[in-house]
Amino acid sequence: MPFERRMWASGQLESHNDLCVGEEIDKTSSITSVKDKSGSTGGMVCVDVALELRGSAGLAIRETQTIVYLPIAPEFTPPPKKPGPTEDLVIDVTQPVSTALLFRYSAITFNAHRIHFDLPYAQEVEHYPGLVVHGPLQANLLMAEATAWKGRRPDRFSFRGIHPMFHDTDMHLRATQTENGGLSMCTVAAAGHMGMHVKAEWED
After folding, report:
1. Full set of structural domains in the chain with CATH
2. What pTM does this model have?
3. Which of 10, 47, 126, 182 is at 20 to 30 A from 151, Cα to Cα?
4. Whose CA is closest to 201, among 161, 153, 160?
5. Looking at residue 157, what is its pLDDT?
6. What's the rounded Cα separation, in Å, for the pair 181 and 200?
7. pLDDT for the residue numbered 59
8. CB-based contact 193:200 (threshold 8 Å)
9. Residue 115 in 3-state DSSP?
10. At what angle do helices 135-150 and 99-108 cross, to 10 degrees?
11. What is the distance between the alpha carbons of residues 75 and 94, in angstroms, rounded to a whole number?
């Protein structure tokens, strides 16, 4: 693929069984789809990866990841901004985003993509205004809030990137309740627009 920019576009998770600290876990990954598409900045390739984690109780987590590969444009052209929710919030938490947080998350997830911890590279090579907040980090923070709100982890959890989020500004974690008892969640930048949208659902 002739594209240098790699971005996490979306993900979906299903939780089936618990994983226990210290147990042996089997992980399988497979590429299920590679599609050529076009967007506002030109061509792109979307890659779908299916993963399964199995522990002593069998299948624990089934996950699908969609990764997008794009050309690096001469300047950063952000996608359209969508305003975050401000009413009927059941969760509204302020999360500071520091360089230390991004570095530590890159380390713990073995993510060597320099847009998350190398500011000169992010600005001078990929033309971002700042360090990029990981999509999975935003999803992790929102899942933690959903788990605390409900008292147990979601059975189904899906997330989709709306707009890049950048470091050194407070990020808001917000949620409204849906008709089926789940949560519609998002990260919200200090300027008021959404970074990532999430759906968290539980079985009755």
Report:
1. 1-73 (3.10.129.10), 77-204 (3.10.129.10)
2. 0.86
3. 10
4. 153
5. 96
6. 9
7. 95
8. no
9. helix
10. 90
11. 30
| Tokens 């992010």 -> residue | 122
pLDDT for the residue numbered 48? 95
Location of structure tokens 């917000």:
174
- Reduced to 3 states (helix: H, G, I; strand: E, B; else coil), residue 102 is helix
User: What local confidence, expressed as pLDDT, does residue 143 receive?
Assistant: 96
Query: What is the rounded distance in angstroms from the CA atom of residue 177 to the CA atom of residue 89?
Result: 8
Query: Side chain identity at 84, as an amino acid letter?
Result: G
Percent of the chain residues topping a pLDDT of 90: 80
**Mean local confidence (pLDDT), 188-199:** 95
Q: How many CB atoms lie within 10 A of CB 107?
A: 11
Helix (H) or strand (E) holding 100: helix 99-108
CB 142 within 8 A of CB 95: no
Cβ–Cβ under 8 Å, residues 63 and 50: yes
Backbone angles phi, psi at 99, to 5 degrees: -65, -35
- Residue linked to tokens 């409900």: 150
Instruction: Say whether pLDDT at 176 is over 70.
Output: yes
Residue 116 confidence (pLDDT) above 80: yes
CA–CA distance, 194 with 50 (Å, rounded to integer): 26
Q: Write phi, then psi, for 187 (nearest 5 degrees).
A: -95, 145
